[in-house]
Amino acid sequence: MGDIGRAVRDRAESFGFEKIVYYNRSKLSPELEKQCEYASTLEELVSVSDVISINCPLNRSTYHLIDDSLISKMKDGVVIVNTARGAVIHEQDMIKHLKTGKIGAAGLDVFENEPVPSKELLDMPSVLALPHMGTHTVQAFSDMESWTIHNIRSALLTGKVQTIVPEQKNTKFN
């Protein structure tokens, strides 16, 4: 439950979720965790979840993270929401399980084969698909421009950027 996961948690509370369980590289501090429960494995998380919100980067360890094997450990009728990266889910496995009802519904704004999502997936009545456009606001663009300028200046002056993604934490920019 990184920054995005915690933002999703805060929004989910207003929808009446009774319990929020998360899986992360390590357990969060109590002030970041709030009233959430930590699952020590991804398998434990998916086995108790009615709704799974995917909020992780796409890298070697998360490519097709959600696949046939992991889906088989989920509750029947689970709802999957992916706003992270499309290839975190093995799309054909998801389609197979949407057809059987193992996955009850999917909310997606990212797809494995962008920019051309699967027509079969888009035609499924249990799939809500939207374009990935959470940052398409005037304020978000303005903030990104300011952060970019700030990071370029910092990289030139200190060799480090201020808002780096965790995967590039030890990268030197000089």
Automatic annotation (TrEMBL):
Keyword vocabulary terms for this entry: Oxidoreductase
Record keyword Isomerase present: no
Gene3D superfamilies: NAD(P)-binding Rossmann-like Domain
Domain of life: Eukaryota
UniProt cross-references to PROSITE patterns, sorted A to Z: D_2_HYDROXYACID_DH_2
Gene Ontology MF annotations: glyoxylate reductase (NADPH) activity; hydroxypyruvate reductase [NAD(P)H] activity; NAD binding
Keyword set includes Oxidoreductase: yes
Domain D-isomer specific 2-hydroxyacid dehydrogenase NAD-binding: 1-134
GO cellular component: cytosol
Family named by the database record: Belongs to the D-isomer specific 2-hydroxyacid dehydrogenase family.
Name of the protein in its database record: D-isomer specific 2-hydroxyacid dehydrogenase NAD-binding domain-containing protein
